[in-house]
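User: Hey, my collaborator sent me this sequence without any context and asked if I could get a structure. I don't really work with proteins. Can you help?
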Amino acid sequence: MRRALSSRWLLAGVSLAAGAGLGVGYGAHRHQDASDSFLHCPVIPIPSVTADAVASESLVPVSPAQLTLGKTSEIMKFGFPSLSHIKTRESYVLAYDPRTRNALWVLERLDAGRLGLTGSDRNRCVFREDETVHEYHRAQNGDFKGSGFDRGHLAAAANHKHSQKCMDDTFYLSNMVPQNPDLNKNAWNNLERYCRSLTKSNKNVYVCTGPLYLPRKESDGKLYVKYQVIGKNNVAVPTHIFKVVILEKHSGEIELQSYVMPNLPVLDNIPLERFLVPIESIERASGLLFVSNILKRTNSLKAITASSK
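Assistant: No problem. I've predicted the 3D structure and written it out in structure-token form, which is a compact way to encode the shape of the chain:
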């Protein structure tokens, strides 16, 4: 993983040296179908912070029961327009973003014992709408037809093959993002397989996966967040996809490995370490928090980046 940014393979990925910025520029060999616009580097600065400051920073969701009565109850007479879109299934938990028709994140726990079982048949699985999502805000199979994108799993089907129901649940479209086929079948598949292999040497493996919509510099020199949408439901096509791997060691130590891949063709011979980024970059780009939650439970945290391998 050393000198991960100096290879001739340097191209459309997310590049981040610790303390610098999050942008496109590492990890994937240039492909003839990849857009040259991804060569521009969007930057999200990462100011230095102390561990204490990170640990104290947390977002506490407010439930209707916690709100004071009186004025609030009067204001909310006709209900809340939205609350947290958390969906729990036997094989994973996700938070859904009705604006993009994609999940914000999907969290799963990989179990070595279950990974060794085969109680399902993928050929019996069918991609289907998530009817727990309002019809205004959900993707349909027709949105993907002719789009040029795969229905890319966030919680991988192969992670849950021990049970037909658990595998079936991974085929809800709420667990999909429009994904470049060459990425889905190659480098992304390699990353999913790598995550499963980590169960052999760790007590627990937790995997959080989700889309990113990163800014890029246009010809006028300004940064814009711009992404394609597909189908009549305007399903958002993420510019990048992240995967945060939380490893609970038998020693009690917690290790973080955080990856970002561009939603572009990426060859399967690109080493996965090229896609390692500091965890702060994903937290800032996604609006999610990982480190502060972990530090509430342990002081033994090790974060892995390309420069630390």
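In plain terms: Confidence is low (pLDDT under 50) at residues 1-60. You can pass these tokens on to your collaborator as they are.
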